Amino acid sequence: MTTTNPSPPLVDLQRLVVAIRRRRRMWLAAGLLGLLAGLALAVVIPAPPTAVTKLLVIHQDDSPTDSGTLMRTDVAVLGTTKIADAALKSLHSTESAEDFMKEYQGLGLTNNVLQITVEGKTAADATAKAKALGDAFIADHVQRNQAAADAEAQALINQRDQAQGDLNQVDQQIATESARGSRANATTLETLYGRRAELASKVSDFEGQAQQAGIGSPQIAAGTQIVDAPRVTPHSFLKTGATNGGIGLVLGLALGLALAAVTAVVRDRPVLRREVAANLGASVIAQLAPRRRGLARLWRPKKAAAERRRVAATLARMVRAEGGTVSLLDLGAPKVTAALALDLAGDLADSVPTVLIDDLPRQDLTTAARDVKFRIVDASEMPAPGQLRLGVGAVEPGTAWTDLAHLGTETVLVVRSGHASTAWLHTVARQLADCQITVIGVVLVDPDPKDRTDGTLWDGLHVALRARTSRAAKSDETRKFVPVNGNGHGSVNGELPTRRFAPVGPQED
C-alpha cells in the first residue's frame, strides 16, 4: 500500500501566531503611537464649541401608541436644506446650506422632545445657530400644520358649496311644483321638502366644519416651542483625550497586528524548532535565550549563563568522546555564539590542550576572554599539532564557504530563531554538504517559549548527537546480529526474539 504525505497548508496558523507573538514589540509600538497620536490630536485639534437646545414639538396626530415615527419625521425634516436655508437667512450668513447641514444634527429624546446639537466657530456662533435652527424648525412646523388646516377647510367649503347648489335646485323644484296649485303632486312635494331639509343640514354642517378647520390647531402653534434655551456644552479634555487615545490605540494595534501577520507570511522566516530542523537537515540539540540589552541584562543573568554553560558542557562531552575538529558556526546570534565558544573551549581545556580559532566577524574573542586556559588564534594562524582545535565562524550571506573546512570537519550551528529565511537555511545546508562539513546539531537561540514542536530528525542517525554518545559508550563492545527464527522463537539470554542492529555509521572505504 502506498501512502502519500499530505500537502502542507498554504498558511501555517501555528507559525503565524508564533511570528506575530515574536513581533509584539512592533505592534505594541504601533498601538502606543496610535495612543499618542490620539492624545496629540485632542491637544492640537480641540473639539469645536458645541451648543445644544431642546424643542417641545406638538403633533396633530399624537397618540400614546406612537412608536416614534412622527419624531423621526421631524428629525428628517430638520436635516433638509429648507430648514438650513431659513436658519442661515435669519443669521444673514453666506454659508452654503450643504456645509451648514454637516455642522448640526437632531435627536429625538421622546415622542415630543427634539434635541438639536450645533457646532460653531465660537461659543456665541454655536449658540446663535442653535437658536436660529430652533426658530426655523418651529416656524416650518407651525406653517405645515396651518397649511394642512387651510387645505382641509377649503375642502369643506367646496363640499358646502356643492351642497348649497343642490339645495338651490331643490328649492326651484319646490317652487315650480307649488305654482301648479291644485294640480301639485303632494307626494312629490313631500319628497322635495325632505330633500331640502337634508341638504340644508349638510350645508350647515359643512359651514361649521370649515370654520373650525380654518381656525387650525392653535395648540400646535402655542405648544411647539423652545423649552431649553441654547447653551454651550462643556468639553472635558480628559474625556476627549481618553476617547481619541482609545481609538488611536485600537487602530494602532489593528494595523500593527495586520502588518506583523503580512510580514510573517511574506518574509517566510522559520521560527519553530521543527521548521529549523527540517530546513537545515539537523536536529535541534539545545536552545538558549538571547543576550539581553540595556536594563534587561540585569534580569536573571545568572540563569542564562548557567544554561549556556550546561549546553557547553554537553558539547564538550561530545567533542572529547568523538575527537576530530568541531566548529561553531553562527547564524544571527554572534554574541551568544562567542560566549558559547568561550565556555566550550574552557571546558575542553580542563582535559586536553585546546586552541580556539577565531573567525567570527564583528566579535573579538580575545578581548572577551579573561584568565582562560586555552589559546585563541586568528583564522590565518595554524595551530600546533597535538592540540584540540575548536573553530568559531559565521554562515551569514557573503561567507567564504570553502574556508569553513579549516574551522572543523563537523559543526554545530548556532541559529537565531526567525533570523534567516527558508531559502537561506537551505543554502547553508547545501553549502556545508558540498564542503563535506557534517552538521551534528543546531543550538537554537531566542526560541519561542510556547513552542512545543519536536526539533529532532529521526533519520540520519550517523550524524545525530544521540548516536555519537551511543558509539562512544559502546566503542569497545562487539554487537552481534541474532536472527529471529521462523516460528518466532529463539531468544538469547532471555531477551525478546528480535533483530539487533548497531547504530548506523558513516561508510568507510
Describe the secondary-structure layout:
Elements: H1 13-22, H2 24-44, E1 50-56, H3 69-78, H4 81-91, H5 97-101, E2 104-108, E3 113-119, H6 123-178, H7 186-215, H8 218-223, E4 225-232, H9 237-267, H10 273-280, E5 284-288, H11 301-322, E6 326-331, H12 334-349, E7 354-358, H13 365-368, E8 375-378, E9 388-394, E10 410-416, H14 422-434, E11 438-445, H15 465-473
Parallel strand pairs: 5-11, 6-9, 6-10, 7-8, 7-9, 10-11
Antiparallel strand pairs: 1-3, 1-4, 2-3
Helix pairs in contact: 1-9, 2-9, 4-6, 6-7, 11-12, 11-15
Description:
This protein is of the alpha/beta class and 509 residues long. It is built from 15 helices and 11 strands. It has a 7-stranded parallel sheet with strand order 5-11-10-6-9-7-8, with helices on both faces. The chain has a 4-stranded antiparallel sheet with strand order 2-3-1-4. The longest helix is centred in the N-terminal third of the chain and has 56 residues, at 123-178. The radius of gyration is 48 Å and the shape is rod-shaped. The two termini are 37 Å apart. Mean pLDDT is 80; it is low at 475-509.
End-to-end span in angstroms? 37 Å
Order of helices and strands: HHEHHHEEHHHEHHEHEHEHEEEHEH
**Percent of residues in helices:** 40-55%
Structural class: alpha/beta
Q: Beta-strand percentage? A: 5-15%
Average pLDDT rating: 80
The strand order across the widest sheet is 5-11-10-6-9-7-8
Q: Determine Rg (CA atoms, Å).
A: 48 Å
Per DSSP E runs of 2 or more residues, the count of β-strands stands at 11
Number of H- or I-type helical stretches: 15
